[in-house]
Design brief:
The chain is an all-alpha fold and 237 residues long. The protein contains 13 helices and no strands. The radius of gyration is 20 Å and the shape is elongated.
Length: 237
């Protein structure tokens, strides 16, 4: 999907797809590393992980729309007998509408049953996918702090509005939340409008035009974006 969107010139949607893949694949790989270590591989988990990302928050930040960082972090904690922390992660995953409540436990069960040889084979496949994802240079982690509701663009936009009030109208700080909302829901014209307005008030006309144009591609009938496009066209010399 990321490649299809990129070939169509849909930059935000491509970032969404690559980020979703990065968050999902890297979290599964870190879970496999943890299971290997619990199974006797490596003197430390860091030795098993090597140079790859080993921070759950950093992995999840590539796209909070994916429930899998919570799922695989939960299994990793479960394997280490940290049951209360694992339960919290499973609960956080279940909050995300992207998570399949009916069948989501199957992958956890299957991973937990694999022996080290099977886990090593799986890790080899996952690291190959990781390399493809990150070498494309599209996936970027959000600067927005992780919490259990970050999958929701409405929630993230609300945080952005709160930041605006708390910072007395500092759109630069609020932009972190607006842009993260756009990444988790890249087909909602309202998210493009929020980013465009924040960019405008921050004095970044190039980004304003970018978000208006990208937004109209995703949601061509959006009233606010069309109005902004008309106003921007009127200002052109």
């Amino acid at each position: 999907m990321g490649e299809e969107y990129r070939n169509l010139g849909m930059q935000i949607q491509s970032k969404y797809a690559y980020g979703y893949a990065a968050a999902s694949i890297s979290s599964m790989r870190l879970c496999v590393d943890t299971l290997l270590h619990v199974g006797g591989e490596g003197a430390t988990l860091e030795e098993v992980v090597g140079s790859r990302i080993a921070d759950w928050d950093e992995i999840a930040a590539y796209n909070y729309a994916s429930p899998f960082p919570w799922v695989f972090e939960g299994l990793s904690l479960h394997a280490q007998d940290k049951l209360e922390e694992a339960q919290e992660c499973y609960y956080n995953a279940a909050l995300n509408p992207e998570y399949d409540l009916e069948n989501g436990g199957v992958i956890v069960y299957v991973l937990a049953m694999l022996d080290n040889d099977d886990l090593k084979e799986l890790k080899h496949k996952l690291t190959g996918l990781e390399d493809q994802i990150y070498e494309a240079g599209i996936a970027e982690p959000s600067k927005c702090p992780r919490d259990k509701y970050c999958f929701s663009d409405e929630y993230l936009n609300a945080l952005g509005q709160e930041e605006l009030i708390a910072s007395d109208g500092d759109f630069a700080n609020a932009m972190v939340y607006f842009e993260t909302a756009l990444v988790v829901a890249p087909f909602n014209g309202d998210n493009y409008a929020s980013c465009a307005i924040a960019s405008l008030y921050s004095g970044d006309m190039d980004k304003t035009i970018f978000y208006v144009n990208e937004g109209l591609w995703a949601d061509p009938d959006h009233e606010g974006l069309n109005l902004m496009a008309e106003l921007l066209n009127e200002r052109r010399p």
